[in-house]
Automatic annotation (TrEMBL), chain A:
<feature type="region of interest" description="Disordered">
    <location>
        <begin position="1"/>
        <end position="59"/>
    </location>
</feature>
<keyword id="KW-0547">Nucleotide-binding</keyword>
<keyword id="KW-0813">Transport</keyword>
<protein>
    <submittedName>
        <fullName>Phosphate import ATP-binding protein PstB 3</fullName>
    </submittedName>
</protein>
<keyword id="KW-0592">Phosphate transport</keyword>
<dbReference type="GO" id="GO:0005524">
    <property type="term" value="F:ATP binding"/>
</dbReference>
<feature type="domain" description="ABC transporter">
    <location>
        <begin position="72"/>
        <end position="313"/>
    </location>
</feature>
<feature type="compositionally biased region" description="Low complexity">
    <location>
        <begin position="28"/>
        <end position="42"/>
    </location>
</feature>
<dbReference type="InterPro" id="IPR017871">
    <property type="entry name" value="ABC_transporter-like_CS"/>
</dbReference>
Automatic annotation (TrEMBL), chain B:
<dbReference type="InterPro" id="IPR000515">
    <property type="entry name" value="MetI-like"/>
</dbReference>
<feature type="transmembrane region" description="Helical">
    <location>
        <begin position="20"/>
        <end position="46"/>
    </location>
</feature>
<dbReference type="InterPro" id="IPR005672">
    <property type="entry name" value="Phosphate_PstA"/>
</dbReference>
<protein>
    <recommendedName>
        <fullName>Phosphate transport system permease protein PstA</fullName>
    </recommendedName>
</protein>
<keyword id="KW-0813">Transport</keyword>
<keyword id="KW-1003">Cell membrane</keyword>
<keyword id="KW-1133">Transmembrane helix</keyword>
<dbReference type="GO" id="GO:0035435">
    <property type="term" value="P:phosphate ion transmembrane transport"/>
</dbReference>
<feature type="transmembrane region" description="Helical">
    <location>
        <begin position="258"/>
        <end position="283"/>
    </location>
</feature>
Amino acid sequence: MVTHGAERSISLADTPPRRVATTDPRQTRMTETTAASRTETAGPLRSIRPPAFDSARPARSADELAGAAAKIAVSDLNFFYGANQALHDIKLAIPERCVTAFIGPSGCGKSTFLRCLNRMNDMIDDARVEGEILLDGESLRGPRVDVVELRKRVGMVFQKSNPFPKSIFENIAYGPRVAGERNKARLYEIAERCLQHAALWDEVKDRLEDSALALSGGQQQRLCIARALATDPEVLLMDEPASALDPASTARIEDLIFELKDKYTIVIVTHNMQQAARVSDQTAFFFQGVLVEAGATNEIFTNPAKKQTEDYITGRFG
Amino acid sequence: MSDTPRKRSLETGRRYPGSTLFGLLCGTATVLCVTALVGLLATVVAEGAPWLSTTLLTSFSSRKPELAGILGSLMGSLWLISITTLICVPIGVGAAIYLEEYAANSWWKRLVQLNIANLAGVPSIVYGILGLGLFVRTLGLGRSVLAGALTLALVVLPIVILAAQEALRAVPPSIRQASYALGATRWQTVWRQVLPAALPGVMTGVILAIARALGEAAPLVAVGAATYVAFVPYSVHDEFSALPLQIFDWASRPQEEFHGLASAAILVLLVVLVMLNAGAVYVRLKYGRRIKW
């Protein structure tokens, strides 16, 4: 399964000459436990706070990561807001059925990049994209690409929960409805399945007809996740899904992400490095519009290849 | 705390005359405003109340004050606002949707936007002249209900467009993004999410615009609406009168009795206006309460 090509595609983009952690075969085979123990012993990195790896939630090992097919492959991606270049030559592969986290300081381009993946940037006046983004090997930027179909396959959850001002049921049913589903019984089936999947069913099953705006912030965000699942996407993009939530709700969302990755390819933007360490399998670090480093999360957090990455994850800036 | 060298009491006995004066001035302005309104209303009620009767509502205008009524002009006004609404709502809301949801932010859009804002400020008599030239003469509609309603629609269209745009803009962008992210088309997003959310605001704007149309006299004078009709319009091609015209006609007559009649007609007009405004408030309360961002 481990192919050289797959390994390379996960590696970082901006400076090809330097090899990154994931392309080193010794480190690729390293398991989570050895990675965790490394933090205590590694000499030059002693100052790094060990990220809180949760042994109950095994991250995909670097092996599995390297073996996973690239669900989305991005190459030479440049993005401009008018004359202002927001992304520079991004090259990244997002492995299937894994959680990929984008980290980096505010304004580094991680959200912009995320929004490229389902072309939500199309709606911004004078935004311009160059480069190639492949979803299952098919370009999603071609002139004949149906954006509506793309967004059904690549769902999105936003930073601020944004339920429609309608009932809980109508929120979930909206996606299938716009896709043409009219059968009410089937819509209820979908609603139940998605709410269960988003760990919200028990809390709302008796009040599906109530306004979604009456839910708490954490519940609203889980509703938004359930709503995104209702269109049966293959990829789920999450733009800081827990940044406005309290710790308990955040923990539930993280649990949820962890459960969902068996079925969906998940990309999550986060400001919170602990969160990236907890939920993700692959981490990509962005800085000033450049993808500085990408690789297995354990590697990035314990043995970053770049000084900038190390400085960021140890809290020296950002 | 005993080592504090200097203790400052909270009871300074100081006054702030500037602040008090400003409050007084603003209060006076409010009182003046309300007094003028109440005075006006009281005069109208005092003069008009004796003339309020079923005769007023069920008869046509007459040379004899005791037989005169507003049936023709009231019905004419209702015809006018109904048709004006039918014309200006689809066009106005459609234009607003185009400008807010479809048009790219180009110089062309900004030009159109600027002109709509300017049109909202054009005196209504100007629209009356336009209506006379375009609808009455060029299109040959004559002095019909349709010509009057089209003219009034021109008067209120900018108001409807601006109000609807305002309502659409008040719908948070996050709702649109959520809809697009679920694979909805622009049409589905506008029709199923944005428009329902904007509906209370749109309706309020429409009803206020209709209220404006109901009170307009000048453009109707310009298109040649009658001040005396002895029939209720049965089709859009019939001639018509309108309440403001009837009021103007009666108020300009020398006999005292007609002044009373004019006041009574004003009361009827006010009742219709208050009903329309109450409708706007009701719509906002009923549909607005469910939506809190």
